Amino acid sequence: MDLDHARRVAVAAVEAAGDLLRERVHGALRVRAKEGGDIVTDLDVAAEKLLLDRIQGAFPGHRVVAEESGVSGAPDGEWTWLVDPLDGTSNVALGLPLYVVGVALCHACLPRLGVVHDPVARQTWWAVRGQGASGPAGPLAGRPGRAAPHGPVLAWTQGHGVARDDPALRELKAALDVRARRVLQLWAPLLGWVMLARGDIDAVVGYRAEAVDLPGGLLIAQEAGLTVRGFDGTPFDGRTDLPPERRSFVAARPALVDDLLGLVTDATARARA
């Protein structure tokens, strides 16, 4: 598999989808509810169709899992694309210009390529496993972290299926609010991963995260030098075959990971007590 060719196809596809979103985002939107409390708009559907046409046209033997239309392509393909045509749909529905487009290519359940495009800034970031992460300003690895004299700035993400009265959710958010300077709830997880890789924020904490937008963003952060651990402290690689209860993680620079893991361990223990 030529991952450099796949990267070029993916970058061109997400940027074309970004152009479509940017041109239509200020028009009238049709919004409908989805199961699990999420929403979908006609923009999600249009951008997804464009992405699927590009990807399936270039790789007809690959399997595709898309946010809105589900599974398509070759059912037994060794390679699987994950497609999030509009990460930040709720923001767009509210008129907030905070959204991105993301795709990932996986093999043997592991992300090998991740690409994220910000249509508003017209910027794209990508990573290939073992080859580093890059963006508009060049390689992302080795960039210094922020000074955090008043505590870290974190991005929080959770799965749509997490109940509002989930005991662990309550304990985790309360603990993070006390420890952190700010806890950002962006409603666009892929944007949080990019911000972490760029050094704009200090960590991403996820609780039962969604499967489609997790692997690509995680790979960009890992290839930029960030450490990602599951709540149990073991390395977390964003495998696509993990059930929701195993998609909880802390991603940060190495010096901060143990501190945050201790915090989430204590919080989840209180939730079980």
Automatic annotation (TrEMBL):
A Pfam family assignment: Inositol_P
Magnesium as UniProt keyword: yes
GO molecular function annotation: inositol monophosphate 1-phosphatase activity; metal ion binding
Requisite cofactors: Mg(2+)
Keywords associated with the record: Hydrolase, Magnesium, Metal-binding
Keyword Repressor carried by entry: no
Alphabetical GO biological process terms: inositol metabolic process; signal transduction
Positions that bind Mg(2+): E67, D84, L86, D87, D213
Top class in the EC scheme: hydrolase
InterPro entries found in the cross-reference section: Inositol_monophosphatase-like (IPR000760)
Record EC number: 3.1.3.25
Domain of life: Bacteria
Name of this chain's protein: Myo-inositol-1(Or 4)-monophosphatase
Record organism: Sphaerisporangium krabiense
